[in-house]
Design goal:
- The complex is a heterodimer of chains A (278) and B (127).
- Chain A contains 9 helices and 7 strands, in the order H-H-H-H-E-H-E-H-E-E-H-E-H-E-E-H.
- Chain A is of the alpha/beta class.
- The longest helix of chain A has 18 residues.
- Chain A is globular and about 80 Å long.
- By secondary structure, chain B is of the alpha+beta class.
- Chain B has 5 helices and 4 strands.
- In chain B, strand 2 and strand 3 form a beta hairpin.
- The radius of gyration of chain B is 15 Å and the shape is globular.
- The interface between A and B is medium-sized, with 32 and 29 residues.
- Strand 3 of chain A pairs parallel with strand 4 of chain B, so a sheet runs across the interface.
């Protein structure tokens, strides 16, 4: 499937036609809604909060924030930022409750320190990896965004950003930028290794250094494996894995499998030499 | 745009980050509207400590509202005093700035507000 990020800038891609299509498509609506619910679950807000919606678009996710019932800690008040004027126009017509800002998140977050209880972003931050002019670079845009976000969150505040990384490089670039800004960062994958995989970048601004999981979000959640890249396994670090070795082959096979390729099962014969026949 | 949001917005220009004058932004030629929103006392108590009271006093005088008391109410007095809660709710959440400009006190940059949406896009040399 083609990625809109590869062809155009966000503000040009989401013109009037595209913005309307995006907001009226029931498929997109459902996906957005379920991702917002998941993000809210990860934020774990106990009381009505002031939330930043990054890349709010037509307010599909914001609507859900305003509708959280009282017994689940809502309703929240939110402020949305988006670069596409057409998207915001649709949001106006749909009469969303939050405040809207026309702003480029790659230029920073124009709020004073400690403004928000939490931040949420649905399918937006991968756009930061595109820089169309020579004056900006993806790295610069990412660092301005995460620095701004870190500032504008209150201490102990959380941010959950769902995004579609193009590849592992982009994923690392985004995570590293968040860590550099000072966040405790973790990535949560829903339905890993399937077509419907959803990647959530969970960020904590200051606060707890809980054991196992730095973000403290998945505490007590079922079916979640915590992989911490800071804790290196004793094997790793002793030089590179030798190309052509059994470990190397298995690693490559796993990589291919993750990409959805058909891979032959690993057996005791994997990586063995074919001896000369006699 | 709600007055609550106005109390948190700063100038986005890079050179203004270190200046004290870049907050609060000063509304100019503001057209206001009133929007009925259900009162949410828990939220108000929650955001109260984060509100910059001096900035809120400046903004509300600039928007033409009667002057606010010098000291912010504490969470307890706010919870007990329903009239004050209502007033604060009307000012912070129900009052909307629909048209006008927001002016930075440091660099003088004007952010246009149209239909309640502020335009914070900057030319690249200011980022």
């Amino acid at each position: 499937m083609s990625r809109p990020e590869d062809t155009l800038q966000a503000d040009i891609h989401y013109d009037d036609v595209e913005a309307r299509k995006y907001t009226t498509s029931s498929r997109i609506k459902n996906i957005q809604a379920s991702m917002t619910q998941r993000a809210l679950e990860l934020l774990d807000l106990q009381e009505p909060s002031f939330i930043l919606d990054v890349g709010c678009g037509s307010g599909l996710s914001g609507e859900i924030l305003s509708e959280v019932p009282e017994d689940e800690g809502g309703p929240h008040v939110w402020v949305g930022m988006d670069i596409s004027a057409s998207m915001l126009d649709v949001a106006l017509q749909r009469d969303v409750e939050g405040d809207l800002l026309l702003a480029d998140i790659g230029q920073g977050v124009p709020f004073r320190a400690g403004t928000f209880d939490a931040a949420i972003s649905i399918s937006a931050i991968q756009w930061l990896c595109n820089a169309e002019t020579s004056e900006t670079s993806p790295a610069g845009r990412l660092s301005r965004f995460f620095n701004g976000l870190y500032m504008s969150l209150k201490r102990g505040g959380r941010a959950v950003c769902q995004f579609y990384p193009k590849n592992d490089v982009q994923r690392h670039m985004i995570t590293n930028a968040a860590v550099k800004a000072g966040f405790g960062a973790g990535i949560l994958e829903d339905d890993p290794e399937t077509k419907n995989m959803k990647v959530y970048l969970v960020l904590t601004a200051g606060g707890s250094a809980a054991s196992g999981d730095i973000t403290g979000v998945v505490d007590g959640m079922d079916g979640v494996d915590v992989l911490d890249s800071r804790k290196k396994s004793p094997k790793a670090g002793k030089g590179e894995i030798k190309k052509g070795s059994k470990i190397w082959i298995i690693k490559k096979k796993e990589q291919m499998e993750r990409k959805g390729k058909i891979v032959k099962a690993t057996t005791k014969y994997t990586g063995r030499k074919r001896r000369v026949q006699f | 745009m709600k007055v609550l949001t106005l109390n948190f917005l700063t100038c986005a220009v890079k050179a203004c980050k270190s200046s004290n004058d870049s907050f609060p932004l000063h509304p100019k030629d503001a057209e206001l509207a009133h929007d009925d929103i259900e009162i949410n006392s828990q939220l108000l108590v929650n955001v109260l400590p984060r509100i910059d009271w001096t900035a809120l006093r400046t903004t509300s005088t600039e928007l033409g509202f009667p002057e606010l008391p010098e000291q912010p109410p504490t969470a307890e007095t706010l919870e007990a005093d329903e009239a004050m809660l209502k007033e604060l709710h009307t000012l912070l959440l129900e009052t909307q700035m629909m048209e006008g400009k927001l002016v930075c006190g440091h660099c003088g940059h004007e952010y246009a507000v149209r239909e309640g949406i502020a335009n914070f896009l900057l030319p690249s040399h200011l980022v």
